Input
Amino acid sequence: MDLFEDAPLFAGPVRHVADTLATSKGRGRPKGAANKRTTQMRDTLLKMGFQHPMMNLAALANADPVRLSAELACDRLDAANMILKANAELLPYFESKRPTEVHVEERSLGVLVVGDMTTKAVADGVFSLTGIVGESDTDQ
Output
């Protein structure tokens, strides 16, 4: 071990590995960072006059089912279902999701003893089948 105490881990021809490790920030883009190509494509489409899909969805959510069914040449029920789906898609942007409720069902299991079994009272209110009580048993 004394031979390796003064020797650097990355020395000589592999010194660049140490420099690379020291300056690297991790693999890929950071979590939550936008993809550059996606951002560029979105900006290009908006400059070309395309409306943001969220605006299209909002317009559909506020549409009149009678006028929408006439415009799309579909049943009023189909138009109403389209409006309902659009509203369901937009709902999380208006109202936050409620936390999931956790119901804990506590069940206690008994002990079934078949036949005659003698017990000994070894402490106040503590019965033991073996007559031996450990420290953790008496603390309960």
